[in-house]
Amino acid sequence: MNTLNPCPCGSGLSYSTCCEPIISGRNDAVTAQALMRSRYVAFTLANVDYLMRSHSARTRPVKDRKNIEKWAKSVTWMGLSILDTQAGDASDEIGTVEFKATYLENGKLQQIHEKSLFHRENGNWVYVSGVHR
Ligand SMILES: [Zn+2]
Question: Which segments in the chain show pLDDT lower than 50?
Answer without folding.
Answer: none
